[in-house]
Write a structure and sequence with these properties.
Helix 1 packs across helix 2. By secondary structure, the chain is mainly alpha-helical. It has four helices and no strands.
Amino acid sequence: MPDDLLARIDREACRRGATRSAFLLQAAQRELGWPGPTAYDAAVERGRAALADAGAFESSELIRAERDAHDSHDRRR
């Protein structure tokens, strides 16, 4: 990478109170379309909507039932 470009990156990173690595990470994420906070918030809302009708449940009971069904299937082999 050219020295003058590194110097510009370092100046901008310093101006933002970030390291060079943090600055380059953010730039790469923007360039590659990495999900930002808005995308995460939207994903959480979609998850909440998908589970809205699930009602209350005990996760350990669901895990146990799935494990037991899997074990039962394995014993039939």
